[in-house]
Amino acid sequence: MTPKLQFQSFSKFNPFPYFHIRHFNQYGELMSREIHRWYSPNLNKEMEIVVYGHYGYALLMFPTAGADYLEYERFKLIDSIGGFLRDGKLKAFSINSINNESWLNNHMHPAHKAIRHQQYNRYVVEEVVPFIHNHSKGLVPIITTGASLGALHAANNFFRRPDIFSGTIAMSGSYDLKSYTKGYFDDNVYFNSPVDYLPRWDDNFMFDQMRRGRIIIASGQGSFEDPEASRQLSNILNSRGVRHWLDLWGHDQPHDWPTWRNMLPYFLGNIKF
């Protein structure tokens, strides 16, 4: 079924231009869906975000690898959490990545990749988070989530700023940024590589905030998965007294969309506010 576009104007709670689409999922069920875009001063480019749902806490979704803000819709992950969206338990905010302008760009020096990554972090904190609160008409809890490289972004953003994020669901991630830097290491790499900064960070306030979060670290153990990466992060969190849920699924669960379509609704069903 072809969605009908309904263009709407600005509001004081939602100062960015957008259009609303009456979106039907694969079962013909109506789901609220809005696409917003604005020029990001942190990234010096236009960035898009799509919002699903009408009420509830916020689920901030980071794309995998070099994909875009509509990836989770194309691969039916949004359909898999449709019940939570329709019932007003949460609103999902899926943002664009700039991985092709940073860690996946083989023509950039690693130092420049790390700088671009930091700009992306500022975009998330200074632009996306205020947008979420404006759109939700209040300070709602925000859970970050992502799969594969998106899991690194989701977990890293929560660990760096547990004072503004309420938890993370990180699926099938690797949390050692050095695997993307070809041996290069500086402060920008260090402070975006959870396995490096978490063991040494001495900010008691941030760790107190982190211990209040809902933290889920998940991985399959099938083809192309790396469950040891999740175990490594779990061991570090345990050493810092940060409670979390490490969940390693079976050897029949590959690094692929069917795994994540099963994981995300399962974990969302276990998060309560």
Description of the structure:
- Helix content is 34%, strand content 23%.
- It has 273 residues and is of the alpha/beta class.
- The chain has one domain (4-268): Alpha/Beta hydrolase fold, catalytic domain (Rossmann fold), CATH 3.40.50.
- The radius of gyration is 18 Å and the shape is globular.
- Residues 1-15 have low confidence and may be disordered.
Summarize the structure.
This protein has one domain (4-268): Rossmann fold. Helix content is 34%, strand content 23%.
Keywords:
alpha/beta, 10 helices, 273 residues, 10-stranded mixed β-sheet, Rossmann fold, globular, 10 strands, disordered N terminus
| CATH architecture group name | 3-Layer(aba) Sandwich
* Secondary-structure element string: EEEEEHHHEHEHEHHHEHEH
Largest sheet: 10 strands, mixed
Query: CATH homologous superfamily?
Result: Alpha/Beta hydrolase fold, catalytic domain
What is the number of helical segments per DSSP (H or I, 4+ residues)? Answer: 10
Question: Which spans of ≥5 residues are poorly predicted at pLDDT below 50?
Answer: 1-15
- CATH domain topology: Rossmann fold
| Global structural class | alpha/beta
Helix content: 25-40%
Strand content: 15-25%
| Strand count | 10
Distance between the termini: 35 Å
The strand order across the widest sheet is 1-2-3-4-6-5-7-8-9-10
Q: For the CA atoms, what is the radius of gyration?
A: 18 Å
Shape assignment: globular
